[in-house]
User: What shape does this take?
Amino acid sequence: YIPCNEIPLNLCYIAAYLERAGIKTDILDLDVESDGFSFTEYLEVTRPSVVGFTSFSPFIERAAALASKVKAWNANSLTVIGGYHASAFPERTLDEFPAFDMLVFGEGEQTLLEITQRFEGEQTAPKDIAGTSVRTESGIVRNEPREQFPDINALPFPAREKLKLERYKPNPVNYL
Assistant: This one.
């Protein structure tokens, strides 16, 4: 076993895409935060209106617990889950974890940008965005998938500057 922490490029790409559109972003990677870190204090300092989470299946309960903390801090914040678990089990994820207001499945750049722009204007979770699952009065609805990004070269370079890069130690086996 070689202890390592890989840079979350998925989050860096999403942050760069949102920043290019004028949305202020921050990346918090709890895998590399030091002991004594307070998520609640972080919320007080950054005061986010939209909080996105990504999670592998083994960590979905941890992500949901953090989303609950967001809701306890500010019930009007929008909590969005994405990532592998959300893409594999969109309806089940929203059904099991009510702290998530909505879910992004598939690639998240365009979808999260649309969510953020619409939420800021409406102050309610948008219900009809492609690439999302949402709760409605009639139950959980999975909207149509979003088309794949048309030109990957149009994406901005990942916003690695939003990370504490000294805390990442890549696994050398990945680079043989």
The longest helix spans residues 60-73. Strands lie at 50-54, 78-82, 102-104, 132-136, 139-142.
